[in-house]
Structures are given as structure tokens and as C-alpha cells.
Design the sequence.
């Protein structure tokens, strides 16, 4: 496997783009589910019993299930990245779940926490990766 400290300069940009793709997809599908299945409120917005399921169900599907099955979220796949255990092995279900539980922290403010941890950690990990003991590598490597 490629040494992480020898990653190309555009690696962080790929990680940012992958995250943007994933969350644009997530919020787009969440909006569509609100419009299709929700009840429009007079003052704007939507309500419905489905909303909690939509928020977590879509998030689990887009972030955790795809990464468990394919080692990549859709965004990571598009930009040619994959997430693996630090040993290089495929992740179990809990590792993607744990790493994505820290997305909000990694993306705050404007992704600064994630960018700084990727830039300054030995294995180019964001906070979620450090806690889940995962790394993100080029898809065509191992």
C-alpha cells in the first residue's frame, strides 16, 4: 500500500469534493422525500411521521451501507478514493458508522477541522478516521 505521507497534493481536494458530493446527494434526497411524503405546513416547511426515518435512514444508506459494501461512499467512488481499516483490510459495519458520526465535527466550521486533521496527522486522517481507525486511500491502490 502507498505510504500515506506521500499522497499527492490534490488528495485533500479529492476528500473535500467527495464529502460535498455525498452531502449534496443526502440533502437532495432528504428534500425530495419531504416533498413527496411530507405534509406542507402553512408557514412553510414540511412535517410527517416519516421525517426521522428519512433523516437517519438516508444517512445510514448513503454513508454507512455503501461504505460497508463497497469501501466507498458515492462521493469517494466518484473521485477514486476508498476507506479501509488502518491495516489495509476491509472495514466492518461499525467503522463507517463511527467515522461518519464525526462528520459534523469534521465539517465545522466550513470543513476546517477535517482539513486540518487530514493535513497534519501522520496518516492523513480526519477526526472520524482517527476514532474509527480507518484511512482513506486511492481506489486503485490495494
Sequence:
Amino acid at each position: 500500500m502507498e505510504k500515506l505521507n506521500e499522497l499527492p497534493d490534490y488528495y485533500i481536494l479529492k476528500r473535500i469534493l467527495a464529502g460535498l458530493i455525498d452531502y449534496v446527494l443526502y440533502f437532495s434526497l432528504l428534500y425530495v422525500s419531504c416533498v413527496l411524503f411530507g405534509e406542507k405546513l402553512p408557514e412553510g416547511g414540511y412535517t410527517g411521521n416519516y421525517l426521522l426515518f428519512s433523516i437517519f435512514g438516508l444517512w445510514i444508506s448513503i454513508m454507512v451501507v455503501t461504505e460497508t459494501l463497497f469501501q466507498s461512499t458515492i462521493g469517494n467512488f466518484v473521485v477514486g478514493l476508498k476507506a479501509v481499516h488502518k491495516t489495509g483490510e476491509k472495514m466492518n459495519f461499525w467503522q463507517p458508522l463511527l467515522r461518519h458520526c464525526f462528520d459534523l465535527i469534521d465539517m465545522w466550521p466550513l470543513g476546517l477541522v477535517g482539513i486540518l486533521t487530514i493535513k497534519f496527522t501522520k496518516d492523513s486522517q480526519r477526526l472520524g478516521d482517527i476514532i474509527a481507525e480507518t484511512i482513506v486511500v486511492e481506489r486503485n491502490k490495494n
The mean pLDDT is 90. Residues 11-37 form the longest helix (27 residues).
